[in-house]
Design a protein that fits this description.
Length: 328
């Protein structure tokens, strides 16, 4: 994202804060629920929706433009197998919206031309092969390795996102992730595992102990204070998750500064809650005003999702995380 665009993002956050606009600054669009993996902690692939028709994709894109969304995070399921992935990237470029993609790297080569047009790829990586096999998929490590290689060859900007489970909440694995990020001159976002609604099988099997997470976060805080440049989380974000799983009260901007668009066009404030929320608005049928009017701030015990936590701090007038938020 260019510096001018970053300042526009900050300006819009403040305009929202003082009531000059009710429109969000960012959106995550789950363009498909389909995925080639069945990661043990994930609920997305359990929902079945066919990908939307192209005419509905166009309606959503127009509304995203009307809302003035600056950054669109394209996610899934596995977004790279979404029916309209490349079309959505092209339209983002045409509309001046910054597209970023969350991916396992599955089908990376097939989508390489579109991926070259994105601003950032966030690769999910939980550690070395033995960890990825336990938390994600037998193929996950090799597929990710190939995708990262292609990203480097094609000069595509990328970072890593690491979900903290019992298999990687120890200094050896945290160092592995930090060294991996360092070797590519990029950053890694650490996010504690969260029990989410809708799972057939619980992710309790992967749950780290409270002590392991707290020690791991302390380890990351110490590294960050010592000047480590490869940790994506802000210091405030890390301090927020250091008491996992109980979080200090922090006003959440879900549904205010960011929204989630589901594969059928339904809009929710957040899709990572421990309880199921029935959406009461859909971006295909409702106007953007109706949609934003109907969204409510969810009641939630809190989370450590990188990006959301930083936005929440900035909205609460703690501006320190802004540099981490706008770094990429
Ligand atoms: C739902 S996936 C979608 C994009 C893509 N399929 C991928 O895996 O990167 C987005 C991110 O959510 C994380 N995730 C999934 N289930 C989670 C959970 N229960 N708690 C925390 N993070 C989770 C994944 O590790 C991944 O980094
Ligand atoms: S690859 Fe992503 S969407 Fe697919 S199951 Fe794993 S975390 Fe979920
Ligand atoms: S704190 Fe906000 S962003 Fe995090 S899971 Fe809860 S509602 Fe979602």
């Amino acid at each position: 994202m260019k510096i001018l665009d970053k300042s526009k993002v900050f300006g819009k956050i403040m305009a929202n804060k003082v009531g000059l606009t009710q429109n969000p600054v960012a959106a995550r669009w789950v363009i498909t629920n389909r995925c080639g993996y069945h990661c043990s902690y994930c609920n997305t692939h359990e929902y079945e929706h066919k990908d939307m028709d192209k005419k509905d994709v166009d309606v959503i894109l127009e509304k995203i433009k009307t809302l003035g969304i600056k950054r669109l995070s394209i996610s899934g399921g596995e977004p790279l197998i979404g029916d309209h992935f490349s079309y959505i990237i092209d339209k983002c470029r045409e509309f001046g919206i910054s597209p970023i993609v969350n991916t396992s790297g599955f089908h990376f080569e097939k989508q390489i031309e579109s991926l070259k047009k994105t601003d950032l790829i966030q690769f999910s990586c939980d550690g070395p092969e033995e960890v990825m096999t336990k938390t994600r998929d037998d193929r996950a490590h090799k597929i990710l390795e190939d995708a990262v290689k292609l990203a480097v060859e094609n000069k595509i900007k990328f970072s890593f996102a690491c979900t903290m489970t019992k298999y990687n909440t120890n200094p050896e694995m945290l160092n592995y992730m930090l060294e991996l990020a360092k070797s590519y001159d990029t950053v890694v976002a650490f996010q504690p595992l969260k029990e989410m609604h809708g799972k057939n099988s619980s992710c309790q099997d992967l749950m780290p102990t409270i002590n392991n997470v707290r020690e791991s976060v302390k380890f990351l805080i110490d590294k960050k204070i010592a000047g480590n440049k490869n940790i994506r989380n802000s210091l405030e974000g890390l301090n927020h998750i250091k008491n996992w799983p109980s979080y200090e009260k922090l006003f959440c901007t879900a549904g205010k500064l960011f929204i989630i668009i589901m594969p059928d066009g339904a809009v929710v404030s957040c899709d990572r809650l421990s309880y199921e929320v029935e959406s009461n608005t859909n971006l295909i049928s409702d106007s953007t005003e109706e949609c934003m009017d109907k969204l409510e701030t969810p009641s939630c015990e809190g989370c450590g999702f990188c990006g959301a936590t930083e936005l929440n701090h900035v909205y609460s007038m703690n501006f320190s995380p802004i540099k981490d938020l706008l770094k990429l």
